[in-house]
Design brief:
mainly alpha; 4-stranded mixed sheet; 13 helices; 4 strands; globular
């Protein structure tokens, strides 16, 4: 997607001023610097998603919608409940397409800027119920919606390099960013915020037990140190304190004891 002229002018002007504490810097609702506009998030995310799709398609691991419509119908049903919670700030801005990567040995999920979410078949098969699936998806969607991914990439690569990627001037760096997205490590604040928003999203579905992400962490923590430890824990650490924080928020919202149907998760597992 092409960025609008104002966004291009703003970013190039900001670079010319050195970006160091200038008034040109944007901030989020907590005062944290975000030098990308929403249009830039979308443009970067689209490029990263195309690169990610190409990489896994070349490996024969990207599950295409046309080849497995039953799996995607089930996955989309879960995603739509989260999107329709009314709690995502960029519900109408971002793509919110969720894709499956066929690798039963990897229990992971990740988000690009602009709302492109990837989930490995190994994670889907690892989960015990649909609230856990919704909780993990909600967590990743929060990373995109709260613009954590853009901000973390900004911290690691710098605004100048990211801008060159957005402008299509640095294909090698684009490939590197896409390759590292699944192992991108967020700050503790970002992880905690994504956990909290996962609870809020699930609460407003009216369907899922809103501490679903905690259920996943409880199982993963019990297996921590074994050969089957989910890769998700390597990029989403400290499950113990996070379980407590998720459950505390869920208790506050009184949405822990829901027992939804697991039909979508069962359909996913049966078709992967």
């Amino acid at each position: 997607m092409l960025r609008n002229a104002f966004s291009r002018f703003y970013l190039l002007g900001a670079l010319a001023l050195g970006l160091a504490g200038t008034a040109a810097s944007c901030t989020d609702d907590k005062g944290n610097p975000v030098l990308f506009s929403i249009e830039d998030d979308i443009a970067l995310g689209d490029q990263v998603a195309r690169q990610t799709d190409s990489t896994y398609r070349a490996k024969g691991q990207l599950v295409e919608r046309a080849s497995n419509p039953a799996a995607y119908q089930a996955l989309d049903a879960v995603v739509q409940k989260i999107l329709n919670s009314g709690q995502l700030e960029h519900r109408t801005d971002f793509a919110w397409d969720v894709k499956i990567i066929k690798d039963d040995a990897i229990q992971n999920a990740f988000a690009s800027p602009g709302g492109h979410i990837y989930v490995f078949s190994g994670l889907i098969k690892y989960l015990d119920n649909e609230s856990e699936l919704a909780g993990v998806l909600g967590h990743e969607m929060a990373h995109a919606d709260r613009r954590h991914t853009s901000r973390q990439l900004q911290n690691e690569y710098g605004i100048n390099l990211l801008l060159s990627v957005v402008l299509g001037e640095n294909p090698n760096q684009l490939a590197q960013i896409a390759a590292g997205l699944g192992t991108l490590k967020f700050s503790r604040d970002f992880e905690n915020e994504a956990d909290q928003y996962s609870v809020i999203y699930l609460n407003n579905t009216g369907t899922y037990a809103c501490d679903g992400a905690a259920g996943f962490f409880i199982k993963a923590e019990a297996e921590n140190g074994g050969s089957g430890t989910p890769e998700f824990l390597s990029t989403h650490p400290n499950p113990g304190s996070r379980i407590q924080a998720i459950q505390t928020k869920a208790t506050e919202l009184n949405c822990r004891n829901r027992t939804p149907s697991n039909s979508n998760l069962q359909t996913l597992k049966a078709n992967l």
